[in-house]
Structure prediction request, 181 residues.
Amino acid sequence: MRFGNLGFVAIALLGLAGAWAPAGARASGAAGERQAADRAQIEKVVRASIGWALTKDRALLYDCMAQDSSFFIFHPDSKSTIVGFEAFRAMAEKVFMSDRFKATDFALHDLRIDLSRSGDVAWYSARLDDHGEWDGRKTGWDDARWTGVLEKRSGKWVIAQMHFSLASDVVAAQAAKPDST
Prediction:
């Protein structure tokens, strides 16, 4: 019975550890649920940032984007870099909202989403098939590489930056093919 007090201390500590463990597990579970909800919302924003064009839903398009001067897009060509939301809006109104443009379909492949430890920044990557018509002629991308960064602003995920590219070996192979039109 010399260890009676130590036994009591050990039992008390085990009891406290048991009481704390569920709270920690609940916190971890809540964080996991929050992260899953954020990922679902991010995927919804990423898809909407392309899918809006099927119905020309301006509000959906613009709500997906960071509406400030830090907004940025790199396109595959050297002449279409966009800096700032107002430049993006001007391009969208001139091109995508034109009656000459009609989106026909899109598909995302291999979408990956990662979140920062702080939970207010996320980045994604995917391969994108994006098709439409301009004056009735088919246009679009197949297997474009698409990456982007989102920020959670006032509780809402918005795209702050995007980058589109085409694999140079595929572009070179397509350019070497005889024109089939």
